Amino acid sequence: MARLPTRLAVRLRARLHPDERGFTLLETVVALAIIFASLAGTAYIVSGGFGYTALARERQAATGIANQLMEQVRALAWDRFTQGLSDSDLNDSGNILACPGATTVYRYKTCTPPPAGTIQAAGAKIIHTPNLPDECTSGPACPLVPHRGTVSGTGYPTTYSWSVYLTNEDIKTQPYIVTVVVTWTGGRIGGIAKFVQLQTIVYSPKGCGGGDVHPFAGPCTAYHSGSATAAAGRITVSSNLLTNNFTNVTLVSEAASTTTQVEQAAVIQSGATQGGTEQLQSGVTSKYGEVSIAATADSNPVTATAPYGSVPTLVPTNGSFSVSPGTGTTLTVQNGTGATASTVSAAAPTSTSTSPCPLTSGLAVSQQTDGLPCAASVSRPGATASAVLNMTALTQNLGTATLAQIAPPSGTVPAASVFIDRKAPPDSEDALRATAGRTFGTISLFALPSNVNAPSGWTGYLITITNYSDQASSAAGATTLAPTAGASGGTISYWNGSGYASITGAALNSGGAIAAGTVYAGPQVFGSGASRRYICTVVAPSLARLGASTSSAGTPRTTAKATMGSPLTGTVQYDVISYATNPGSCSSPLSIPTSLVDLTISIDLGSASVTTTYKPAPTGG
Asked: Residue 506: CB partners within 8 Å, gap ≥ 6?
């Protein structure tokens, strides 16, 4: 079959397939427009996505800043929340408003207070205190003072402004609200509020032991408190004659004390007082000696008190004076010269060189280096204290009489000592233990005039206490030993009317009357002729001892007390009487008396007492 010509074949093929003729120019332009529109939409979507990604990064950084600020605030001590912002830092337009009233009240965001019974920041009072320093440079409390700032630099996509607000509408019934706000500007995305706000409630549970030892917001931990006191003894001499020139004079023995509280922080106060003398005249008391020292320690980071305080020695102060209890008589009172004392309060003793507790070797306790609270105080007389009545200027020279004499204990043993120590495992106790004790050398009381004939068997004094020491100790906590109190040695010897009796050993721990008898010396003749006088000396005691007592409660032991009372307390009437005629007997005189000496002497040698308490950490339930 013959082939068709080429031109004809092309025409026939075109007629048979009209769809293969190609695109027109119009079709091409429309297609390109559609492609470009699609690409532009895609580019817009992609660009917007990048913008929102950048915004997410900005917000993430802002949230990190807000979280960091909030953690800084949460780490502040509780006392710092009660102070709030500084008065000089309240110029924060739009957020801190000065609301008018009887007095200007600063509120957050709005001057409308929160509805009663609700807890919210908006409208609540801004907490503020005058003259707070810039703590971002001078202390740990930033970011409260100042409460605004900026953050920028490496790692931050933009510059951020931050502010912190502390509000509380009723500090007695409501918690504090902390509001942290972080803002920024710029970026690719507009029309969106660029800020992050965080809020938290801060409170300190009641019953934790108080703000002093619970400085940080948060749950209560175990609370311990204790006190130990070695109270001063007092011997007071009063004259009942109208011719005296004073009201009374007093010999005062040494004293020591300490108080301790421990929870999140430890707060300790310790002190010691040297012995001395006092004179009361015309309503005014003059003291000689009785110098006190004190040491405090506080591990609360907000307070200015250091966690360790000590006074290693006390400058001795001496005192001696004389008064006239009546015509022709002189009473001279002398304190124990050269007295010494030391005191220490340690919130966390760790070294015998930098934080020694106790300071003295006179206490039978080891140096504490366990980092747990410790306190100790001691006081020791340097010489004998005395009250001596001189009657040599009387027409009838009766000589002298030592009414009271207190000699110091031997060696380095203190007359008054206290010790408090927080114990914890591996120790046998998990508790706060308090100990107080006293030690006397020799106490001699109520001698007769030296020129008066004493009754048969008289050895010099109505009552004598030799080598006496006692102690009271208690502990409260998770595991403790029982409280104890008692005398560890000594003898009380007293005139019973015909000779001397003694109290020693376990009998020192029981209270009760001391059966001291009245002393009658005379009548004794002094002078002759018209100046002849019959002299009677009468010493009438009413004395007792107070003994030991202990008590405790709770399982585990939540309270414990121990007291060792005064080994001698009561009064003595000391009379020297003159008769113109023979009275026959000093106990039942028949003549008219004339009082030469009329003294009432009260005595209380002090006590050793300790108290400890424990509140376990609360548990959920």
From this structure: 486
| Selected residue with higher pLDDT from 300 and 270 | 270
Mean pLDDT of 486-491: 94
Residue 363 carries which DSSP code? S
Find the mean pLDDT for residues 468-478: 95
Helices within 150-266 (DSSP H only): none
449: its two tokens:
């005039």
Nearest alpha carbon to residue 574 among 388, 443, 396, 394: 388
Tokens of 361: 């070797």
Name 320's bridge partners: 334
Q: Torsion-angle region of residue 22: left (phi > 0), alpha (psi -120 to 50) or beta?
A: left
A 10 A CB-CB count for 555 gives 6
DSSP 18-44: GGGS---HHHHHHHHHHHHHHHHHHHH
Between strands 512-514 and 500-504, the pairing is unpaired
- Give the mean model confidence (pLDDT) for residues 287-313: 86
Measuring CA to CA, which residue among 448, 402, 414 is closest to residue 273?
414
Region 181-186 average pLDDT: 86
Residue 25: how many CA atoms within 13 Å on its side-chain side?
A: 0
- Placement of tokens 């507790």 in the chain: 357
Q: Which two tokens stand for residue 196?
A: 């992050």
Query: Which structure tokens are listed for 468?
Result: 């006496």
Mean pLDDT of 399-405: 96
Q: What span, in angstroms and rounded, lies between the C-alpha atoms of 159 and 62?
A: 10
R_g of the chain, CA atoms, integer Å = 44
Nearest to 68 by CA among 3, 194, 4, 156: 156
pLDDT in tens, 348-373: 888 888 888 887 656 777 888 889 99
For every residue of 272-317, which 3-state class applies, written as one string? EECCEEEEEECCEEEEEECCEEEEEEECCCCCCCCCEEEECCCCCC
Say if CB 414 and CB 439 are below 8 A apart: yes
Q: What residue ranges do the domains of the chain occupy?
A: 60-202, 223-615
